[in-house]
Write a structure and sequence with these properties.
This protein is of the alpha+beta class. The protein is built from two helices and three strands. Helix 1 runs antiparallel to helix 2.
Length: about 130
Amino acid sequence: MTATPKPATELPWHYSNTNAEREYVRGENNQPVFGGHYTGHGNRYGGRKPNGHVTKDMKYIVHACNTLPTLQAEVERLREALEAASEAVTMELNPSNYDHDDVCLLNQQCIEAMLTIEAALQTEGSE
């Protein structure tokens, strides 16, 4: 698995429209991450003010970048819960392999696994 790329400018980022001529995505200490002039010569937008798509895209990039760490933490939390549930059941379901005590133990392990999965799937504010 490859390492997750990290931004050079620490999150969170924010969208900044200092005036009608400039739009930026900014990071820590209001440092520009990308963006720039839309009018004049020599800019990356060819001297034209964008049609609104650039603004929407910049705001979407800010949202996506700021949301990524939360999503990565949630994926890790769910992965750990599923691993714990997987490790909770240690017996094979074969009627000839267990007696009454084994059935009770297996039942308890399955209940523990299901409770772990249910707890992992609960999100804040859900019922």
